[in-house]
Design a protein that fits this description.
alpha+beta; four-stranded antiparallel β-sheet
Length: 162
């Protein structure tokens, strides 16, 4: 009897060494790249608390400043038949050494701010960026009246349009 069944050739066994070698190669490349990144300084590994000192370290001292309160100002805004009012209250941030000088010319500061605020219209006050612009304009006028370097900032405490 002849063997009618043809023998099928067996498939060669896949090499199991290739994935293992590729894995080892990529691990070595990854470790080498990681070492290079850390050692060359491309990656900051310092702890933020360690770089600035301990957590119990005292913060920097605040600058020597004082605040001078301005008298509240009430402005009438009349346009046509409608009458509106602006209530304004502020404080001046000054160097502590110049507090007496600024208090001495406070009536002049109030006069300048009163004149500026009266020149504004309701439309000027309703713009989205109005408060920022008005604040910078008032600060500049106060610095001119008081003298250079005495007033650091103008802090608006109340700005109510009713």
């Amino acid at each position: 009897m002849s063997d009618a069944v043809a023998e099928t050739p067996e498939a060669p066994a896949k090499s199991r060494k290739l994935p293992l070698l590729l894995g080892a190669l990529f691990s070595i490349l990854g470790a080498g790249a990681g070492y290079y990144v850390v050692s060359s300084g491309l990656l900051d590994t310092t702890d933020k608390h360690a770089a600035t000192g301990t957590a119990t370290e005292r913060p920097e001292a605040l600058p020597d400043i004082a605040f001078v309160e301005l008298d509240p100002i009430l402005i009438s805004l009349t346009e046509g038949k409608t009458a509106r009012h602006l209530r304004f209250r502020a404080q001046l941030e000054v160097e502590a050494a110049f507090k007496g000088d600024v208090e001495h010319v406070l009536p002049r500061v109030t006069d300048v701010l009163n004149g500026y605020l009266r020149a504004l219209s309701s439309a000027d006050l309703e713009e989205p960026q109005a408060l920022i612009r008005i604040r910078s304009q008032m600060l500049r006028r106060v610095q001119i009246v008081v003298g250079k370097g005495r007033v650091r900032d103008l802090l608006i405490m109340e700005f109510v349009l009713s």
